[in-house]
Amino acid sequence: MTSGATALRSPRAAVPPGERGATRIADRVVAKVAAQAAREAIGTLPEDAATPHATVVVHRNTAQLRLHVELDYPTDIGARCRAVRRHVAERVHDLVGMDVPEVAVHVERLHLTPAHDGLQGRTS
Known about the structure:
Layout: H1 2-9, H2 11-14, H3 27-42, E1 53-59, E2 62-73, H4 77-96, E3 99-112, H5 114-119
Parallel strand pairs: 2-3
Antiparallel strand pairs: 1-2
Helix pairs in contact: 3-4
């Protein structure tokens, strides 16, 4: 009787660690982590800008990301996109544990900064 009770109390001893199962993180969770990381990388945006949005395709332990962002203008768009790609890939890897070989950044809209708008002589 005691051997059966012991087996019920410690099921981990009966199953080797490699055969216990795996943790699966939903695609939408990875997308939310990526969108938040993009917000961190972009910094402050004009008040009428949409927050970054991410879509993801997960295959095993690899995530391919597509980000949709809005940026202020004028800015070095290429440098900003590189910074977003790097930061998002690092954060997703650190927080979710997935490799991120591809981060496609789509700039949906550019927002003219008020200081630059005034230099051009435009009125609202």
